[in-house]
Design goal:
115 residues; 5 strands; Rossmann fold; alpha/beta; five-stranded parallel β-sheet; 21% strand
Length: 115
Amino acid sequence: MIRICFSGVTGWTASAIVAAIEDSADLVLVSGVSRSAAGKSLAEAAGSAASGCVYASVAEALAAEPVDVVIDYTSAAAVKQNAFEAVRGGVHVVIGSSGLSSEDFAELDEAARDH
């Protein structure tokens, strides 16, 4: 199973992404990230059947639960930091947010290759 941390778990894309993860045979949602819902369960914050928790930051989520992939659907203001936290933690990252520049992607690519 591929263990997923979903950053932006209470955002506008959340219901579709949570449903897709839960419908997949090889993915499992283990944690979420949302500053406004930190401390809540995934069930309470996102209507998920998963038993995990929601954290205030990607760094907190990675420290609490082992994950394989961070999916980020947050905002232009948050996505870069979230992606770097995932890379520093040795975790794959899928970015669904917009707002990163080509320079940002180059920095992330370099950091990922270094890890």
